[in-house]
Design brief:
CATH class of the largest domain: Alpha Beta
Radius of gyration: 20 Å
Strand order of the largest sheet: 1-10-9-5-2-3-4
CATH topology of the largest domain: Rossmann fold
CATH architecture of the largest domain: 3-Layer(aba) Sandwich
Distance between the termini: 36 Å
Number of helices: 13
Shape: globular
Strand content: 15-25%
Helix content: 40-55%
Structural class: alpha/beta
Number of domains: 2
Number of strands: 10
């Protein structure tokens, strides 16, 4: 929280204090470095470190469950050269639950949108991102721009239920740019016609300039969301798997190295193409054992340069 903003809930303040305490006492950061990493002022960083002490979050170690998560996050960031990494506790009773990760993604997105300088945020779609957006507190940011990475038309011609762009625009009053297309065209020729339409070309170009890209990461198996939601057939799913696809990001099927698979479905997709590289912040939001291969591929191929996940998934990524 920057000075002058409304106070955050007590639980959130303690979480911030735990992060500041870990960064100061365990990782050895200065208060200036803590302020920069937590996007707060230096006096706020100092107060957070003091709060960690006064609430006895710090003894000879960080006495807070987020300590182990931060250690995992630091190791992941080092292994994959990440620009951002946030690891939340795993729910032992529901290891694939998205609530914790969605909450962390919401906090990260809120912090990003709090910027006074106009920014462009590019968004994927899906259940986890939708759950994250539902937790965003309304705040007017009309000078920001929100742009979709994925078509917002479902296979039956209806609007996608998991569209995140429109909902976030409602909450922020930011100008937003959807892609009014189906995820897959009928054939490559139709795809070229659709993405060549001037408004669509402008949306793709705007997404390429995004200050933050936030996406889900999908698995490529019998529970693949593209298949479950009817975007691809069982035959197309099996063909993708035979061709080496291990996951998908904004619909593009990728192999174990993060490369785009040479498959017919990738020749029909209307989503914004990937721009692998370290010069941009592209954060993946994903959790669960079934998605580990896909997340690893997206990290390896630099499709994502940041990650929000849970302890169990982070540990699996580090074990490989």
């Amino acid at each position: 929280m920057k000075d002058g903003e409304a106070p955050r809930p007590e639980r959130s303040r303690l979480d911030d204090a735990a992060r500041a305490g870990w960064l100061y006492f365990v990782a050895g950061n200065t208060q200036d470095e803590i302020a920069r990493k937590l996007n707060v002022s230096r006096p706020t960083a100092q107060r957070l470190v003091s709060l960690a002490l006064s609430e006895r979050l710090i003894t000879f170690r960080l006495d807070h469950p987020i300590a182990a998560c931060m250690e995992l996050g630091a190791r992941l960031a080092e292994k994959y050269a990440l620009r951002h990494c946030d690891v939340v506790p795993t729910d032992p009773a529901h290891p694939a639950a998205v609530a914790g990760v969605a909450s962390a993604a919401a906090g990260f997105l809120e912090q990003t949108l709090s910027a006074e300088k106009p920014i462009i945020v590019a968004l994927g779609t899906g259940r986890t991102l939708r759950a994250a957006v539902e937790q965003i507190r309304p705040v007017e940011r009309p000078y920001h721009q929100l742009v979709s990475l994925v078509g917002n038309i479902a296979p039956d011609g209806s609007a996608s239920f998991f569209d995140t762009l429109t909902r976030l625009a409602d909450l922020t009053k930011a100008r937003h740019y959807p892609i009014p297309l189906p995820l897959f065209a009928r054939n490559p020729e139709e795809r070229e016609l659709l993405v060549g339409i001037e408004p669509v070309r402008r949306v793709h170009a705007l997404a390429a300039r995004a200050d933050l890209t936030l996406v889900g990461v999908g698995q490529m198996d019998g529970e693949a969301q593209q298949f479950v939601d009817g975007f691809i057939s069982r035959e197309e799913l099996l063909d993708l798997m035979r061709l080496g696809a291990v996951g998908e990001v904004v619909g593009w099927a990728i192999d174990a190295e993060g490369g785009v698979v040479d498959a017919p479905t990738n020749g029909r997709i209307t989503s914004v193409p990937h721009r692998p590289g370290a010069d941009r912040l592209a954060v993946g939001v994903a959790v669960g054992a079934a998605k580990v291969r896909a997340i690893r591929a997206a990290l390896t191929g630099r499709i994502i340069t940041g990650l929000i996940t849970d302890e169990a998934t982070a540990s699996a990524l580090l074990d490989s």
